């Protein structure tokens, strides 16, 4: 609309230069940098931490209810378990659930969104109806029933069901984006040159909204972590291993608050908040990188 | 407008049907004989209760009948308001148990959701495009939305309850007081209500503030805002319009957030042992009381659907465009 | 003289440097005159329109001045500019389709806008203006979404001119409309001038043929500079600047018959305004370019009211 944008588009839109420009802004965006740094820090703690502690997370290693010390950095539980050992192992679980749950939700959301947005018509109507139904269903309530009855107690299965219930908003967002891309020249060109739907979606439409898909995945990732922690807290978490939500459940169940064992319930909650919050902030930063309109000059 | 409501109601009806079907189907996916395994898993001490339940379940499931009949029977029972019998507090009907808990959950949720919604929207609108405020509201908002509900609840219970001793940390009212309409009891009720309410309020607040801030910025960059600026209209008028228009997606946002808000209320109740549906769910899971769990599930779904419909009505009242019938809200 | 623009320079701030969207433009618009401003997209015509009423955040007033009715407009100062907006200078934006608040009835919005500017709503004036553009009075009771594109466009025109501004800027207002509506909107716009509601007008468009129908004078811009300015008839029938000539030739019909001639686009594209080359900016695309074009051609008045910036203007 402005002279500026027209001047900008006149340059050949080489994808390499676009990527270089994105990188340029990415490295100068404090929100993205801080957010990513926090997430990476916790990821690193989750990856390296378990190698540093000899104890398995649920082992009774020391004196019960010991406050943090040089030996047990985060103190011990009422049973004498090492909270730090639980914490670093819990981080692993949390990231795993986030990636798997967020990933599955992203894949389903993309499938539904792309197909509905690109095909339109009856397919769109039907998919839209399904999306709306699952959108209205309260995810946690559904997960409660499924997990309780089927006794789902592995991280993978938990992530699967979280993914299968949390895709609808992503599908709707992607559908809207696809819808706006559908009429563009390059899509028409691909269609005229005989590409089939699958090819057009994966080669033309998908890559053109890759930044948007990344943003969507990040939000689904964070969302998945939060849902998993709630499920764990209600007592439907994985039975083998630990997770941050499970730590909170145990702390709450064994009266950590009343006993003043703050080192038991503060770290897991703080870690979830920090990771999810950092993901959100990084997401805003990324959005600014990809979307020049949001940049503050 | 009729089309708009028609579509909405269709989605809700279908959603309810899906929820009921899931509810009916899930026990049949359980490995082995569902009745036997349910009884085995249930912690029932009285032998006569076990026998009563066996006949009851077998009748209810009607496992000797064809599947479609079982399915129809299930719906039939539902319409009679028969959600089965609780195992945990056998032989109280599930619906009675739930009805005892619902007022607590609603009493917690409705004020906290509405208040956080209005306050959050105000804060967000105020922060948008005001650099200093924006720089504080935004990070605080993101931290709050990222906080797991139960964790903030634990922190508040610990800080204000255990350490400071200002508020009680468990229950809906003191054990020493019998529920009545006396001032003492109501005050005690309120005293127990404050912390869980505040916890729910705070977590939800951040999300609304951020959402509103982003919507307002979008509206302030819209064409009508630019036009008004070009005609020299004061910021006050432009912001007023922007706020009003940004409210519309926020109303849709409230509908979309209902599931999360319910989940938040459930886990918060568990932390405070608040006698609502959340604590009931915990009891049901601990006692393997599946009928109770299923009943709660249907109740939550129903509640969310009703809330959705109320929000739809509000939307129509607020957005003139849906009323003129020229365009429907897409959500 | 109603509007006098002298050596106006407006830049866009970008990370790569300043984009010189307006690089020294001077012209006058007389009382009762409609100036048609034409050129390719990116030539600076929209920037010029914005500069006269409200610059966006990235625009910087670098040099030159704008006088309206003998008074200098503080175009670089958003706050000091405000009293002039709507009262003295007004705008019919290119986004007229979405310029009205979608959730307010139009009449109410107009009332609120006027009150916010400290003016009481004069119902009689408002209604006579509606009559002028042929809108029924009921539109005031409607929401914008209930109006057709042409109706919205005319409603915005009525709103923008309610305070009888001295200068009205119409920015690409017809681009979103179909051809028949375009014509009626353009006619309605000219009607505002005939009835004395607005004194002068700058009509910005990329559509030369439409400009020709309503403008008294046409000004063609190229890459941030004035290329040629002449009375409408002269511009179409006897353009002097090679760019204008090519532009006119590329049109299917501008009053003159071109049945025999092929439509020809102009090869190449304008230079980047980030760091524009010295000399004539059209040089690289110009069929007549020669050595001297390495120096910048000054705008020269070749005959009364006809200004051309080209070394070969006399040819």
Give a short synopsis of this structure.
The complex is a heterotrimer of chains A (297), B (331) and C (315). Chain B is 78% helix and 0% strand. With 331 residues, chain B is mainly α.
For this entry, give a set of tags.
heterotrimer; A: 297 residues; mainly alpha; MetI-like fold; 14 helices; globular; disordered N terminus; C: 315 residues; alpha/beta; Rossmann fold; eight-stranded mixed beta sheet; four-stranded antiparallel beta sheet; 9 helices; 27% helix; 24% strand; transmembrane (chain A); MetI-like (chain A); Peptide ABC transporter permease (chain A); membrane (chain A); transport (chain A)
Question: What does the model show?
Answer:
The complex is a heterotrimer of chains A (297), B (331) and C (315). Chain A has helices at 3-10, 15-26, 30-52, 83-119, 121-136, 139-150, 155-165, 168-182, 185-192, 197-208, 210-236, 244-253, 256-259, 262-290. Chain A is mostly helical and 297 residues long. Chain A has a single domain, classed as MetI-like fold (Orthogonal Bundle). In chain A, helix 2 packs across helix 14, helix 4 (83-119) runs antiparallel to helix 5 (121-136) and helix 6 (139-150) crosses helix 11 (210-236). Chain A is globular and about 75 Å long. With 331 residues, chain B is mainly alpha-helical. Chain B folds into 2 domains: 20-82, no CATH class; 96-330, MetI-like (MetI-like fold, Orthogonal Bundle). Chain B has 13 helices and no strands. Chain C is an alpha/beta fold and 315 residues long. Chain C has a single domain, classed as P-loop containing nucleotide triphosphate hydrolases (Rossmann fold, 3-Layer(aba) Sandwich). Chain C is built from 9 helices and 12 strands. Chain C has helices at residues 45-53, 78-81, 106-116, 123-133, 149-160, 179-194, 208-214, 232-237, 242-249; strands at 3-14, 17-29, 34-38, 59-68, 71-72, 89-92, 167-171, 200-204, 217-222, 225-231, 300-303, 306-308. Chain C is globular. Mean pLDDT of chain C is 86; it is low at 254-263. Classes of the chains: A mainly alpha (297), B mainly alpha (331), C alpha/beta (315). Chains A and B meet through helix 5, helix 6, helix 11, helix 12 and helix 14 of A and helix 1, helix 6, helix 7, helix 10 and helix 11 of B. Chain C: Keywords: ATP-binding, Nucleotide-binding, Transport. Chain C: It comes from Sphaerisporangium rufum. Chain C: One of its GO terms (biological process) is peptide transport.
